[in-house]
Amino acid sequence: MEKSGFDEALQRLVKELQAALGERLCGLVLYGAATSPDFQPGQERARVMLVLSTADAGTLMDARGPLEQARRAAGVMPYILRQGELARLADAFPVRVRSMKAHHRVLCGGDPFEEVSVKPADLRLRLEQELRNRLLRLRAAYVNTAEHLPSLRQQVLQQSRGLWMDLEAILSLRGVDVSEGSPREIRERYAQEYAGAAAGLAALEQAESGPLENASAVDSILKLYESLVETVDGLAP
Q1: Which one of 12-21, 136-145, 217-226 scores highest in mean pLDDT?
Q2: pLDDT score at 83
Q3: Do 178 and 148 share a structural domain?
Q4: SS3 letters across the chain
Q5: 94 and 173 co-located in one domain
Q6: Is the Cβ–Cβ distance between 228 and 160 less than 8 Å?
Q7: What is the mean pLDDT of residues 2-8?
Q8: Looking at the structure, do residues 16 and 91 belong to the same domain, yes or no?
Q9: How far apart are CA 70 and CA 121, in angstroms?
């Protein structure tokens, strides 16, 4: 899909939601990698945050048609919130909310992130939880699938989905602002700031673009996650 076709699909989604929901529609926001110039429509998922005055079953059903059409046409996946709910998610999902605030574009309505803030302590704790979970799952996946490289590669990709948000959050805790960067640029900046992570990030990029040559290629990725956990643990007060 061309970028122009993707933009047209978003514009159509806005119009159809306005027609279907009326005043119940408070806003629609494109967020995440889809806001980057590097985004490839049709090859990556596009995520939108739909803000509603009420999220009862009837309203969700009314929104279903436009959202399903956008999913089929442009791979759009919704994150549905009631008005005012976002601020209360900041301490529960600080990594996601911080990333959404840094990388979003308002498609209609007001900007729901204007009054939202993420506490550094909440962000650091959640980062440690997420990264330790990724590491533990990847170790188990290695043991279970090391003899079947396609399955091992899928596990690596699954556990590394959205890692750029974690890297950006770590950099932000160190006072490095990369909010204008694409996911690729954030990875590159992290490798510059933490040279020890460069080999693991390069191995991960290779796994994303093609098959694993051998199971030992995952060793660099395991070491990457160990270093990320150590880095975040070192940021604790």
Answers
A1: 12-21
A2: 93
A3: yes
A4: CCHHHHHHHHHHHHHHHHHHHHHHEEEEEEEHHHHCCCCCECCECEEEEEEECCCCHHHHHHHHHHHHHHHHHHCEEEEEEECCCHHHHCCCCHHHHHHHHHCEEEEEECCCCCCCCCCHHHHHHHHHHHHHHHHHHHHHHHHHHCCCHHHHHHHHHHHCCCHHHHHHHHHHHCCCCCCCCCHHHHHHHHHHHCHHHHHHHHHHHHHHHCCCCCHHHHHHHHHHHHHHHHHHHCCCC
A5: no
A6: no
A7: 86
A8: yes
A9: 37
Number of structural domains in the chain: 2
In the predicted model, what is the mean pLDDT of the chain? Answer: 93
Q: Does residue 30 fall inside a structural domain?
A: yes
Q: What is the pTM of this model?
A: 0.87
Q: What is the pLDDT of residues 33-72, one digit of tens each?
A: 899 888 888 777 899 999 999 999 999 999 999 999 999 9
Both 91 and 138 in one domain: the answer is no
CA gap 29, 72 in Å, rounded: 18
- Looking at the fold, whether 146 and 228 belong to one and the same domain comes out as yes
Cα(51)–Cα(19) distance, rounded to whole angstroms?
A: 15
Question: CB–CB of 139/146 below 8 Å?
Answer: no
Confidence of residue 167 (pLDDT cuts 50, 70, 90): very high
Assess if residue 114 is contained within a domain.
no
Residue span of the structural domain in which 32 resides: 3-109
On whether the CB atoms of residues 64 and 70 are closer than 8 A, the answer is no
Q: Please check whether residue 115 lies inside any domain of the structure.
A: no
The predicted-structure confidence for 176-203, as pLDDT tens digits, reads as follows 999 888 899 999 999 999 999 999 999 9
